[in-house]
Amino acid sequence: MRFQAPESLSEQIAQHLGQRIVTRELKPGQRIQELKVAGELNVSRGSVREALLIMERRHLVNIFPRRGAVVSSLTADSVNALYDMYIDLLCMLGRKVLERWSGDQLRGLMGQVRELQAVVDAINTTGADAAEKVIDAGFGLIHYAYRLVENPFLEETLENFRPAISRTYYVTLDYFREDIAATATFFRQLADAAVSDDAEGLQSVIRTFGEHQRQQVLKILREEESA
Question: Does the keyword Transcription regulation apply (predicted)?
Fold first, then answer.
């Protein structure tokens, strides 16, 4: 495999390995060997090392002296810490959207929601890879909000959470197929609240869905620990 610009080589490697962690191809506790990855991808060990540091910042791996990089575990504490922050950041993004734009100017959100609904409908009829497609469609709506808010600091912070959040979404959608429809409902309610200029309703929708996701992940972790 060869990686090309515009993204840096180390970033592309981090995304490649990160996707393998998100989809659970690489398991928690599994060691990632620099030399092996470098050989598989035909890149230098230095580039792999930089990629692992990026992944460590995104909480996908832990790096230990003399042991190297190990896929991080999903624990109740890490999930709770992640959702505490992510829910608050999404609420901030929602508030900033409503501060800058009025209902008529937010009609584009409904177009994004229709696109997500089309993805859900296609999954229900074709059995496509549900988790990845729904995650990508959901983040498409978040990216639309970035363009409305134009706050690069908030955008960068939320984007750094994307791999860890995607990892938990993948777990829940893999276990609970009904969450596919729930995700589409969430984004529809989100857009309705935004177009209605309902700041309290918007944050209530975000918190309700975020807490639902948190509890689903925690339930799965409990079941896997007791298995």
Answer: yes
SS3 state at 3? coil
Domain count, the chain: 2
Residue 6: DSSP 8-state = S
First to last CA, the chain: 37
pLDDT value at position 187?
80
Largest CA distance in the chain: 58
Tell me whether residue 3 is in a domain: no
- DSSP letter at 71 equals E
**What residue type is assigned to position 60 of the chain?**
L
Which two structure tokens, joined as six digits, stand for 22? 């998100």
Helices (H), the chain: 9-22, 34-41, 45-57, 76-100, 107-126, 130-149, 152-175, 178-195, 199-226
Residue 33's pLDDT is 92
Question: What pTM did the predictor assign?
Answer: 0.82
Is 66 found in the same domain as 87? no
Return the SS3 of 64. Answer: strand
Distance of CA 45 to the CA centre of its chain: 27
Task: Specify the CATH number for the domain of residue 16.
Answer: 1.10.10.10
Going by C-alpha positions, the residue among 61, 53, 54 that lies closest to residue 78 is: 61
Comparing CA positions, the residue from 198, 215, 2 lying closest to residue 95 is 198
> Tens digit of pLDDT for each residue in 1-46?
554 544 689 999 999 999 999 988 999 999 999 999 999 999 999 9
Structural domain of residue 101, as residue ranges?
Answer: 76-226
Nearest to 165 by CA among 90, 111, 105, 54: 90
pLDDT at 7: 62
